[in-house]
Each structure stands twice: as structure tokens, then as C-alpha cells.
Design a protein that fits this description.
The protein is an alpha+beta fold. Helix content is 16%, strand content 36%. The chain has one domain: Thiol Ester Dehydrase, Chain A (Roll). The longest helix is centred in the middle third of the chain and has 12 residues.
């Protein structure tokens, strides 16, 4: 099943809030083997927690046009405007920024704008998903 081309440019509602607590930072830091799991600043990959919630909304949408079992996470990037700290309350708003068809396969690029409780930009998380076509 091909990717629905109407997803290009589509934005999804913001995620629920992700509260950055010392416990959450410690658990994440330990999970990624960070050198200082007691730090008050988040490890550089911490925004994946916000982006994953946003990607879930995309992948659970009935109009995506492809089956989840045909998806491979191909690439991940973070562009941060400032560090994430204990006390931050973050949300993410995902937009499908690119769809490239490759025969029966496709590459889908999704960008998640991460903001704090004041609505200020914290950074952007970008994922590229490889989507296999029908066998």
C-alpha cells in the first residue's frame, strides 16, 4: 500500500505535555548510558520522548496509506535552540515535510517542533521513515 501523498504538509495536533523531572532525566540518562545520570540538563537525545508521542499520532492515523509493519526508522536529527532542563514542560507539533517515492517504497520526513510551556521554541526533531511497498 503506497503512502498517501496528501500527508505532505499535514500537521498534527500538539502532543500532551512532557514534564522534565529529575526522575525522568535520570531514567532516560541511565537508559542511554549517559555519563552523568544525575545532571539537571537533559541528554542530547532526550527530545525523542516528545517526538515519539508526535510520531505515534502520525502512525496511528487511519489515512496514512501504509502498514506499520512496513516501516523502518531510517534517520534521526535534533536541532536544539537551547538545552532542556529540569522544570521544562514540553510539547511537540509534527508536520510531514517530505514524501519521496522510490518505486513501490517511500521515504517520509517528519519534523516535530518542540516548544516549552510559554510556547517558546526549544528545538526541532526530524525523523526519516523508510516505508516498504507491497511485496
Amino acid at each position: 500500500m503506497p503512502v498517501n501523498p496528501e500527508l505532505q504538509g499535514r500537521s498534527f495536533p500538539p502532543t500532551g505535555p512532557v514534564r522534565v523531572t529529575p526522575e525522568r532525566l535520570r531514567a532516560f540518562a541511565e537508559a542511554v548510558f549517559a555519563s552523568d545520570p544525575g545532571a539537571s540538563l537533559a541528554p542530547p537525545t532526550f527530545p525523542i520522548l516528545v517526538q515519539q508521542a508526535a510520531l505515534d499520532a502520525l502512525l496511528q492515523d487511519p489515512d496514512i496509506g501504509f502498514e506499520l509493519q512496513n516501516v523502518v526508522h531510517g534517520e534521526q536529527r535534533f536541532t536544539m535552540d537551547r538545552p532542556i532542563e529540569v522544570g521544562d514542560v514540553l510539547t511537540g507539533s509534527l508536520t510531514v515535510t517530505g514524501i519521496r517515492t522510490l518505486g513501490s517504497n517511500a521515504m517520509l520526513t517528519a519534523e516535530t517542533l518542540i516548544t516549552d510551556a510559554a510556547g517558546d521554541r526549544v528545538g526541532t526533531a526530524t525523523s526519516m521513515l523508510l516505508i516498504g511497498g507491497a511485496a
